[in-house]
Amino acid sequence: MNDSISVSELGERPLISRLSGIFSSVHNPDVTLGAGPDDCAVIDISENEYMVITTDMLHRKTDFPLCMTPWQIGWMSAAVNFSDVASMGARPIGFLSAMGFSKDTDLSFIDEISRGMNDCAKFCGTSVIGGDIDTHDELTITGTALGKVNKSELLTRRGAKPGDIICVTGFAGSAGAALHALENDIDIPDSLLNTLLEPIPRVNESQELARTGALTSMMDTSDGLAMSLHDLADLNNVGFKIDEKSLPIQQEIVDFVSSESSVLADFALYTGGDFELLCTVSPDMLEAAQSACYLNVIGEVVDREVGTTLRCRNGENLTINRKGYLQLGN
Amino acid sequence: MNDSISVSELGERPLISRLSGIFSSVHNPDVTLGAGPDDCAVIDISENEYMVITTDMLHRKTDFPLCMTPWQIGWMSAAVNFSDVASMGARPIGFLSAMGFSKDTDLSFIDEISRGMNDCAKFCGTSVIGGDIDTHDELTITGTALGKVNKSELLTRRGAKPGDIICVTGFAGSAGAALHALENDIDIPDSLLNTLLEPIPRVNESQELARTGALTSMMDTSDGLAMSLHDLADLNNVGFKIDEKSLPIQQEIVDFVSSESSVLADFALYTGGDFELLCTVSPDMLEAAQSACYLNVIGEVVDREVGTTLRCRNGENLTINRKGYLQLGN
Fold first, then answer.
1. CB contact at 8 A, B105 and A329
2. What is the ipTM of this complex?
3. Mutate to test the interface with A, among B13, B30, B48 (most CBs of A within 10 A)
4. Which of A212, A257, B101, B302 is the most buried if burial means most Cβ atoms within 10 Å?
């Protein structure tokens, strides 16, 4: 590979693979899963439990819509990390926050960010256990979240196989629709706006689901449904058949996005920020999974060569493209 | 407290205390020590072991001297965190890195940063196990380091008592002198420059020291010797008598800093970036501690009311001020 190219020319996913290659050169006996495609690294801590850990950097310009309150900024910084912990079936046990802000930042602004983090950690059954403060022109927050999980209940992105059912814990496209409303000055209910500004990490659902033993793989939908499906497809060497009529689209967004089903499907597939859990379930254990928490069945896992497609209302099969929310290129 | 003041008016240490107050409002049964004055949070993971975790945010402008190579930037980002793990007597078990850089950053630059992190993690007996990449105007790196420690060997900043001996693992003021040389275009040997640009986290010394059971408290000297002494003094309600003639000043810096002992003492006390370990030792176990690793005795722990003072070569006792390297105000 030619080294004189920029990181955006390479793109986010290939860059992650490249760095994982550098980082995997050292054997680490403490680590069960590391520096790879999963949402968290997994550390062996005792006979029965793993610890999972994840870190996520957020910035004022790119990650926090202008209308966000400081409390929401704090909540969001914690929520994105706890969502990754949830993706592994783990119980959150702590959050660390490294914050960079300019020297003239008002103290009450930092207090409110901290309260938002604290409230999100509390909602997730845990607390903020450490951090760092630093000076910086642009507000920057790097969160790190930790969880514990019984070894038998750990879920990763690997394990989906043809015949499994694919499900999602809530709606798809709601946060994207809320962002669309914000960007176009469309007035929407607070409840919908909050799917974007105060996302709920599915930490309880995650643990309930993991306990059933019914799931074969899991990840969150923060980069959008299509991107998540493609990540699972690549890792497991499978494809997905998704039913357009089963896409869990929140009724309220129809009013201001479009009543056209193809437009709604695009929002559900190709916008990010929802932080729901996407999981594959053994077909004979679907009932057990559905008894654990509210779960929308959206399709099935198929052979790789079938590809990842959307079975439209008109009977047509459309390819679901690999696109969604990415920081760097595509 | 009036909320309309800025964070720099409040200062770094009071801000940390204030945020710790917000974060300590939630009880967390998984956490033994959290969100407080120590270098790491401490998590209970099994019958015999604790996990320690720390996070640190670094920026291009404030934390990486201009002459730093990308490899050194990566090394430094990992080293500052591993030094915090070392401060607790723990064995490093992993590192996570969240990096923000502009889209036009050259790929080879990111590769080199990653190799520097990887090499530092390898030096510390572990590896890079996860991370995040993000776009950002200014290069920003938040590292998170993890360690494990036997419960009986955990060291914290608390425990120093009058009569204990205070020691440091290496020199004081070397990194500060190197920075002074850089800022004044003074040519110095690479070995000295590298105390600033490629600091060695004392991870091996730390574990050897912890095993002796001779230490009563420990922290690193990254914010400077004076600041570290005051942190220990405040937490333990003690003072320190430091011998000027025992200050471990590297001979090479005399050549370009000054031959005047008071100037050299100022460098040793009031400049940061050394990443040595500062520890208090039970007087009857000093020999055991000194057999574990190279250790400079610099003075003794005294009663609080005696204060923290420097016994000068001329017999005078000078107050050691609370100053050093801080991000925000004083």
1. no
2. 0.93
3. B30
4. B101
Give the domains, in start order, of chain A with CATH numbers. Answer: 37-152 (3.30.1330.10), 156-319 (3.90.650.10)
pLDDT at res. B13: 81
pLDDT at A94 over 90: yes
| Closest CA–CA distance from residue A112 to any residue of chain B (Å) | 10
Is B161 in a helix, a strand, or coil? coil
Q: How far apart are CA A293 and CA A273, in angstroms?
A: 21
Give me the sheet containing B317-319, strands edge to edge: B215-220, B277-281, B165-168, B296-303, B238-243, B308-311, B317-319
Which residue numbers in chain B have pLDDT < 50?
1, 328-330
Q: According to the per-residue pLDDT averaged within each range, which of A246-255, A278-287, A317-326 is highest?
A: A278-287
Span A134-165, pLDDT tens digits: 888 899 999 999 999 999 999 999 999 999 99
pLDDT at B324: 79
* pLDDT score, position B330: 38
Task: Give dist(CA B99, CA A246) in Å, integer.
Answer: 38
The letter for the amino acid at A117 is M
Cα angle vertex A39, ends A64, B19, to 5°?
A: 50
* CA-to-CA dists, residue B165 to A74, B159, B236, B312, B330, angstroms: 43, 12, 14, 18, 28
Q: Which of A30, A49, A136 sits opposite B59 (nearest CB)?
A: A136
Among candidate residues B285, B298, B89, B315, the one with its CA nearest the CA of residue B206: B89
